[in-house]
Automatic annotation (TrEMBL), chain A:
Record-level GO BP terms: mitochondrial electron transport, ubiquinol to cytochrome c
Source domain of life: Eukaryota
Quaternary organization: Component of the ubiquinol-cytochrome c oxidoreductase (cytochrome b-c1 complex, complex III, CIII), a multisubunit enzyme composed of 11 subunits. The complex is composed of 3 respiratory subunits cytochrome b, cytochrome c1 and Rieske protein UQCRFS1, 2 core protein subunits UQCRC1/QCR1 and UQCRC2/QCR2, and 6 low-molecular weight protein subunits UQCRH/QCR6, UQCRB/QCR7, UQCRQ/QCR8, UQCR10/QCR9, UQCR11/QCR10 and subunit 9, the cleavage product of Rieske protein UQCRFS1.
Key word Transmembrane helix present: yes
Purpose: Component of the ubiquinol-cytochrome c oxidoreductase, a multisubunit transmembrane complex that is part of the mitochondrial electron transport chain which drives oxidative phosphorylation. The complex plays an important role in the uptake of multiple carbon sources present in different host niches.
GO cellular component: mitochondrial inner membrane; respiratory chain complex III
Protein name from the UniProt record: Cytochrome b-c1 complex subunit 8
Alphabetized InterPro entries for the sequence: Cyt_bc1_su8 (IPR004205), Cyt_bc1_su8_sf (IPR036642)
Subcellular location: Mitochondrion inner membrane
Membrane topology: Single-pass membrane protein
Family the UniProt entry places it in: Belongs to the UQCRQ/QCR8 family.
Pfam family, one: UcrQ
Organism, scientific name: Tigriopus californicus
Record's keyword terms, sorted: Electron transport, Membrane, Mitochondrion, Mitochondrion inner membrane, Respiratory chain, Transmembrane, Transmembrane helix, Transport
TrEMBL record, chain B:
Sequence ranges assigned to domain Cytochrome b/b6 C-terminal region profile in this UniProt record: 210-376
Protein name: Cytochrome b
Binding site residues for heme b b562: H83, H182
Keywords: Electron transport, Heme, Iron, Membrane, Metal-binding, Mitochondrion, Mitochondrion inner membrane, Respiratory chain, Transmembrane, Transmembrane helix, Transport, Ubiquinone
Keyword Ligase found: no
GO cellular component term of the entry, any: mitochondrial inner membrane
Parts of the chain that traverse the membrane: 36-57, 77-99, 111-133, 139-166, 178-200, 220-245, 288-305, 317-335, 347-368
Binding residue positions for heme b b566: H97, H196
Chief location category: mitochondrion
GO molecular function, one term: quinol-cytochrome-c reductase activity
Domain of life: Eukaryota
Length: 88, 376
């Protein structure tokens, strides 16, 4: 017997709901993809703007760390003037 | 007419799991990774079974069996490429699945989360064991490096390593037992996945809003069967793209050279999915400290269920928490990059700072979100 059944977590027993108003439309009375382009596409841009300043700054910072580290490593791999003077 | 089959225990389990399962109406693409990981596991088990029909675990034979018979046996090149790249995609799915868990507070399902972390550990072990089997240079030296870490254990370390090796170095005994373990572990993982789902269906899936969705659920079939199918197409497409077009993109050229105990590769490094942990291991100058940090890098996930709770589940409504989370993502990428670099400056200092930042996330995320709870 599934625990979710014991906890009554199945259709017909999900939770005690009061004050619910139910509407029903036949599939023949509705358009399945209403607003998919007219509202969906602008929504993509809205979602992008909402998350831009949370995602982009850390990624930008990470790229700067990577770029700077690679430049610094290349610089340290080069011979510096006077580096081997003490061996003369 | 009475349909007895509807009420049989097996069909009842299947029906309640993938047909009539009450699922939140608003779960997003981040909830696809569970099913994708199931597909990955099935694919790895199947392709692994096919490969095992032609594999011999012996130090004199394994390398040549892999190179030659996988060229001679019909389509074994395909199964090998699928198995090798499938492992990479398995870890992509794992890390994104865990990222979803961290972001949306899924760790509050304590049993599900704990079993999930155990699954992660076993999959990591299985991937490590499997990489040794072709017996290339990186296979041999990766096995030597990682198994030698156990010598850091106080008092018993040396004996543990000899016991693991089955001898005084990584040799034939090690290869044969690694093959056996690599074969068996995925089936244990499969059992744990069943347990993982069992505890998940106890409460039902969470959702991106972090609120109860008991008032707004839909049946799993057709909605999420179709959504999972679409996700599978987007996941399997790039996997097959790699298999057919560039199967060694994520591999190491050293593994095309037979393993040689007398020749140490210039850069010993694991596959990409272990690099973040490898960077953390090398960041600590002390051997035992590094091993502890390596273990802690994964085991820290066990802390999340007991971390300070927020008023609203997940980070969706916590701007500072979100910034910290994406900083963790950046740190993870940088640790992966740092793990591939040689032990030279400035990579050493950067690895140490990044390791500190990685663990700082888990320490700070609770207090930062609670501060916002108190302020607002």
């Amino acid at each position: 017997m599934r625990p979710s059944f014991l906890l009554r977590k199945e259709f017909g027993n999900l939770a005690v709901i009061r004050g619910t108003v139910k509407y029903h439309l036949s599939p023949l009375e509705q358009r399945a993809f209403a607003g998919a382009i007219s509202q969906g596409v602008p929504n993509i841009f809205w979602r992008f703007r909402q998350s831009f300043f949370y995602v982009v700054p850390p990624m930008l910072l990470s790229y700067l760390v990577y770029y700077t580290a690679e430049m610094e490593h290349d610089r340290l791999q080069r011979k510096q003037p006077g580096q081997f003077d003490h061996e003369k | 007419m009475y349909k007895a089959s509807r009420f049989s225990p097996l069909t009842s389990i299947i029906r309640h799991t993938v047909v009539t399962l009450p699922t939140p109406i608003n779960i997003s693409t981040w909830w696809n990774f569970g099913s994708l990981l199931g597909i990955c596991l099935a694919s790895q088990i199947f392709s692994g079974l096919v490969l095992s029909l032609h594999f011999t675990a012996h130090t004199d034979l394994s390398f040549y069996v892999v190179i030659q018979s996988f060229g001679d046996v019909y389509y074994n090149w395909w199964f090998r490429a699928l198995h090798a790249n499938g492992a990479s995609f398995f870890f992509i799915g794992l890390y994104l699945h865990i990222a979803r868990g961290l972001y949306y507070g899924s760790y509050l399902f304590k049993e599900v989360w704990s079993i999930g972390v155990v699954i992660l550990l076993l999959v990591m072990a299985s991937a490590f064991l499997g990489y040794v089997l072709p017996w290339g240079q990186m296979s041999f030296w990766g096995a030597t490096v990682i198994t030698s870490l156990f010598s850091a254990l106080p008092v018993i370390g040396g004996d543990v390593v000899v016991w693991l090796w089955g001898g005084f170095s990584v040799d034939n005994a090690t290869l044969t037992r690694f093959f056996g373990l690599h074969f068996v572990l995925p089936f244990i993982v499969a059992g744990l996945v069943g347990l993982h789902l069992f505890f998940l269906h106890d409460q039902g899936s969470s959702n991106p809003l972090g609120v109860s969705s008991d008032f707004n659920k839909v049946v799993f079939h057709h909605y999420y069967v179709l959504k999972d199918l679409v996700g599978a197409c987007f996941f399997i497409g790039p996997l097959l793209g790699l298999v057919y077009l560039n199967p060694w993109l994520l591999g190491d050229p050293e593994n095309f050279i037979e393993g040689n105990p007398l020749v140490t590769p210039h850069h010993i490094q694991p596959e990409w999915y272990f690099l973040f942990a490898y960077a953390i291991l090398r960041a600590v100058p002390n051997k035992l400290g590094g091993v502890v940090a390596l273990a802690a890098a994964v085991l820290v996930l066990f802390y999340m269920p007991v971390s300070p709770k927020t008023s609203v589940k997940g980070l969706s409504f916590y701007p500072w928490g979100k910034m910290l989370f994406f900083s963790l993502v950046g740190v993870f990428f940088l640790l992966t990059w740092a793990g591939s670099k040689p032990v030279e400056e400035p990579y050493v200092v950067i690895s140490q700072v990044l390791s500190f930042l990685y663990f700082s996330y888990f320490a700070l995320i609770g207090p930062i979100t609670r501060i916002q709870d108190k302020l607002l």
